[in-house]
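Inverse folding, one chain.
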């Protein structure tokens, strides 16, 4: 069976989209939520304003990357 792992960009409101829309439609709870501050990369400096933005999330058994973008 083919699986789809979507990659969607939101305009800085990823957390709001998933808290108020995605969970109400598909149900489930966040089992993982990764913010940019949680993924240190050698040689990459993440601006302070972007530290709390969402990089990826997992709700129940559905995985996807939905970063906050501009």
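Residues assigned per position:
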């Amino acid at each position: 069976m083919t699986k789809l792992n979507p990659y969607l960009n939101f305009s800085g409101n990823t957390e709001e989209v998933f808290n108020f829309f995605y969970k109400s439609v598909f149900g489930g709870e966040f089992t993982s939520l990764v913010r940019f501050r949680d993924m240190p990369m050698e040689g990459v400096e993440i601006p302070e304003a972007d530290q709390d933005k969402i990089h990826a999330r997992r709700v129940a058994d559905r995985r996807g990357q939905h970063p906050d973008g501009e």
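Strands lie at 30-35, 54-59, 62-65. The chain has one helix and three strands.
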